[in-house]
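Q: I'm writing up a methods section and want to include an example of the input and output format. Could you take the sequence below and give the corresponding predicted structure tokens, formatted cleanly so I can copy it straight into the document?
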Amino acid sequence: MTPTPDPRTVAAVAGATAGAATAAGVAGIALLAGQAWRARREIGMRTTVPPYADGRYGSRHGTSLRFVVLGDSGAASLGAVHPHETMGAIIATGIAAAADRGVVLANMAVVGARSHDLAAQVERALVVRPHVVFIMIGGNDVTHLRGKRAPARELGEAVATLRGAGCEVVVATCPDLGTVRPLGPPLRDVARRLSRELAAAQTIAVVQAGGRTVSLGNLLGPEFEARPEALFSPDRFHPSAEGYAAVAGAVLPSVLAALGLVDDDTDHGAS
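A: Here is the clean output for your methods example:
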């Protein structure tokens, strides 16, 4: 399941296998490069924008909870068609129902963002003084071959800044890029390995910074792999409305726990 990377950078994943492919010779590298090129053509260029879903959800009486979403195209719900199909809207509606209070949603995620872009998003988020922040990021770090140390550190710093300001933070770790059908094996296997390594590093960084994690790769990877026609949007890269509903359903319990609305179910396991 991969809501995050910019399709225009998929080909970069092939470079991560250069060292391993050397043993198999130039033919192995050429195979990976060819697969990346074909995947890039199948996915195509992005021609849509995420639906705008900011606003108030639930009760219009009393003091509202402030909910902010940060991250990349997955967090922004690129691939959804209507505002109510976005993850932010689904989670905000769930919070409002559980709290019996209004929820004001502000989605500040940016399509194409990488982990080093979180600092600017956090700065904007703190202006609205959110009660809880949801972050999903990492896919573009993988496709840009940034490794795991720098992206995990940058994510941890963002979480620490938010926690220092009194915000609860829930992070969906990097999804399993190996479920993207336009990526054929062995390129798909490389994408899966890199995304899992980043997700594990993200988990450690987030927990150390005082946040909560939800392992998308573990929870939803098998489902996205088994039902790609239903859970991916037409670009076969970003989730569909049903796919975003699945992600929101996986994340919502941790958001509610962070707000003290349900029993704690913090996921401290590596993704």
